[in-house]
């Protein structure tokens, strides 16, 4: 059995090392690659042992909806990389974030969220929470006065993304965290775009961090997954019962794939970030472009926030073409190397039209409230040679 997460952390291993060795549990065979345990259930030495395990009086696995050795390795590794006390994995990013924002709430509670969110997250808050008697309100994520005003009215939970999907808006996590603590509200941060390599929300005061492990962590277009990271008390009291009884369980196979992806996470994110920074500069100078957003470019409206919170600009770019949907579609259809795809954080460069794909469930007014119109493209930059990417994007922009 490998060292427990706390013991690994005491060794002072850096995140890149934790991503390779953190949470490792070897069987008696001494395998180097993590073992994949494809089983739905587990046997017991006796009826008494089964009773103790189900009652939580004895450590051990009981059912793969509750956990498995492969998922446990992933949970320990993610907690070590993030600097969290504990982690739970789920079947998808939305399985993780829906758990993170719904499990703590009850009828009569109030939620404050940033206007700029992934379409499905915004849909849950705007359309589902009110059905359960939960009051919801959206604010401009960069407007601290709005955060202060709405949080001070009383709320139980706050949700933000920074950088936000799809236009890479910035939210001052530390400032919002202070407001939440004063009000007794839980701050949940979706850190998918930044990754734990470039930004640590828990260090900035967040209570809960969520990920789609599909993005960046697997990062090679293979499997779905999600993760929730927070303190142990919150996990055991609020999230564990929800996960066990509602059942958004992670597949051991998917967990194993993400485990192997984590070994190269830093290498991939670092190179993808270098590629993205170069492409953002190239795009910004093209006459077909109306605006470009990249977190570490000084012309980003929330540059100061991103520069303070993120160690680098990340893998994502958003840009607006002069015109509207027709020009955006013409650009996308002219791409030869880059794929049209609504996924992100992949080794392959992917581009999509958020207004008609990832955020299509939102009305035009809702899209406009986050600055989104039909001219915008969201691009996730991969590991291709940047010269080839520049050539493909320049040719496609020239066609517009």
TrEMBL record:
Pfam family, one: Cys_Met_Meta_PP
Enzyme Commission numbers on file: 2.5.1.-
Keyword Transferase: yes
UniProt keywords, alphabetically: Amino-acid biosynthesis, Methionine biosynthesis, Pyridoxal phosphate, Transferase
Cofactor(s) annotated in UniProt: pyridoxal 5'-phosphate
Catalyzed reaction equations: O-succinyl-L-homoserine + hydrogen sulfide = L-homocysteine + succinate
Gene Ontology CC entries for this record: cytoplasm
Molecular-function annotations in GO: carbon-sulfur lyase activity; pyridoxal phosphate binding; transferase activity, transferring alkyl or aryl (other than methyl) groups
Gene3D superfamilies cross-referenced by the UniProt entry: Aspartate Aminotransferase, domain 1, Type I PLP-dependent aspartate aminotransferase-like (Major domain)
GO biological process: 'de novo' L-methionine biosynthetic process; homocysteine biosynthetic process; transsulfuration
Pathway: Amino-acid biosynthesis; L-methionine biosynthesis via de novo pathway; L-homocysteine from O-succinyl-L-homoserine: step 1/1
Positions bearing N6-(pyridoxal phosphate)lysine: 215
Family to which the UniProt record says this protein belongs: Belongs to the trans-sulfuration enzymes family. MetZ subfamily.
Subunit structure: Homotetramer.
Described function: Catalyzes the formation of L-homocysteine from O-succinyl-L-homoserine (OSHS) and hydrogen sulfide.
Name by which UniProt lists this protein: O-succinylhomoserine sulfhydrylase
Organism listed in the record: Hyphomonas atlantica
Gene assigned in the entry: metZ
